[in-house]
Design goal:
The protein contains six helices and no strands. By secondary structure, the protein is mostly helical.
Length: about 120
């Protein structure tokens, strides 16, 4: 998936997204043990795209795959907006803030909201 994202390969990204299995939420009372082999499963394809893909690819994913959960969190509890803002990807932050389902008030596991202002100027 990472190679397809970096190469702006829409066919490869489409294939990876078709094969992506959304993790099932477990009841909060159930303890979940995660091995290091499973930690990569805790980021969504959009989390990966925000970190390594050109803005045009992030835009493509958002436009073609509208069932993605913009509130999904990675193992640190960061949403895609947390990642984009913390990495200074102002172009991606602007794109994400245009999405109707985005919530910039979500907290990560450290109790932090998306860094504001959203840029590293």
């Amino acid at each position: 998936m990472v190679l397809a994202l970096r190469a702006n390969d829409t066919a490869g990204v489409d294939e990876a997204l078709r094969n992506y299995n959304v993790p099932q939420k477990r009841p909060s009372s159930e303890k979940v043990r995660v091995s290091s082999a499973q930690t990569s499963d805790l980021s969504t394809p959009l989390h990966l795209a925000v970190q390594c893909a050109p803005t045009s690819m992030v835009e493509y994913i958002l436009s073609k795959h509208n069932k993605l959960d913009l509130a999904a969190k990675n193992r640190a509890g960061n949403t895609v907006l947390h990642l984009a803002a913390s990495q200074g990807r102002d172009d991606v932050v602007d794109l994400l803030l245009q999405q109707p389902d985005i919530d910039d008030s979500l907290l990560n596991h450290d109790g932090k909201q998306v860094p504001y202002p959203y840029s590293h100027d």
